[in-house]
């Protein structure tokens, strides 16, 4: 007997290989973003304070020859000076947000190929965010 395949859910179908939106509050995203922000800080030289992630605004992933994550992230100035704290050692527990510090919105892309232990970040600033602007 030949029958039709039955879908188990009523969730809308997405095209194979198309980007899929994810929950921005998923904690696994912030772990990836911290790695990306470390790279961002290494590109700034030794002046000023390190930037740290505050909030994930949007998140998506796409299966390619690996996985491509796209994030929009609110990033803020920390209390940690670049000339005394190594960017590679930054983490939430040792780097606090500076009260009244600058904030910006960044687009962070992460291309991962876990079986090759490969990851590449592409980071672009979208815009500055005013201190009293709610995001």
UniProtKB/TrEMBL annotation:
UniProt GO MF annotations: cysteine-type endopeptidase inhibitor activity
UniProt-annotated stretches for the region Disordered: 1-29
SUPFAM superfamilies to which the protein is assigned, alphabetical: Cystatin/monellin (SSF54403)
Pfam families named in the record: Cystatin
Domain Cystatin: 33-86
Protein name (Swiss-Prot/TrEMBL): Cystatin domain-containing protein
Taxonomic path: Eukaryota, Metazoa, Ecdysozoa, Nematoda, Chromadorea
